[in-house]
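Good morning C.,

I know you're traveling, so I'll keep this short. The sequence:
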Amino acid sequence: MSLSEKFNPNNGPKRILALDGGGIRGAITIGYLEKIQHLLRKRYGKKDLVLSDYYDLIGGTSTGSIIAGALAIGMDATEIKHKYLQLGESIFAEKRGLIGRLSAKFKIDALEKELKAIFGDMTLGDARLKTGICIVTKRADTGSTWPLINHPGGKYYKYNENIPLRNAIRASTAAPTYFKPEYLKVDPDGQEGAFVDGGVSMHNNPAVQLFLVATLKGFPFHWSTGADKLMITSIGTGYWDFHRHHNEFKSHKLWDWAGDIISMLMADANTMNQIFLQYLSTSPTASSIDSEIGDLGQDLLHGQAAMTYLRYDAHLVNERLRELGIDNIDAHDLHEMSDAENCPILTRVGENSAREEVLDQHFPAAFDIDPAIV
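The tokens, ready to paste straight into the viewer:
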């Protein structure tokens, strides 16, 4: 199916795939993607089906943007897994010393080399893209969130279409203190913007941003809402419960609060994404937000679902790891997003979690594709 057919709001129901940021924990995401790809291949009897055949728009933040880009150019989920393992080892294996870390924790050369190897000279407007793409990044010099898309009807497409895809993804992965900002030309006169990781915005989980891109009049897609018209599949990079003893905060210094506040804000942003999406949707995977509002199963804004919503994420706590058959691992050790040594075990966590959690019946027949035109 051509891009114009995928973008056409009158050409059947639409399917969106949203991939969270999370550094090396993106290995978890790929386990879910492999399971979804397997289910779809079995459903349609096509051994070579890839997720860009099924989804009309694939978007990601930070490490999710790397995976989203690879999917959008037509790569197989298993191939992405192998490349991701190599990429993680090369990007996060070499840490700078104390002096170097005053500017950035990791050298950028390895990341740029790997992105160039995958995406070559493709641009954001490249005809070789197999489906819609949205790269979520943050412009540091204006404080605005930028969803970079490949729809030719976009207001700023004429300025953005020639941005190399690898540079757009590099911008989305430029986590402050980990990597230096990426500078992109944002208009024909050569004006540059300084871009950093999209996880600095409210959209480390980009599902809400993609919903807005797909449906708001200011964006070019104008896709219809409805439980049988729009489906969002959102995949995380692992989560855990935040519990600290209150006495820990009595001796907190300024630098202690700096890290905690960032973590709290990111957790709240993710929770608000979940509330918003479950409040608007029919969701067979709905999770309990907290003990007060539950899973919003009895709540539906305006009484009519705006979408079908699927959310998959791995619970990184010791009890859950044991249930998944993963022993002799302290779940806390998997929370760090830059430890390359964790990549193989995170891959197992994703694969084992997906085996239990991703079910064929989660994907309604209303969103089936015609395999003959793939």
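Safe travels,
E.
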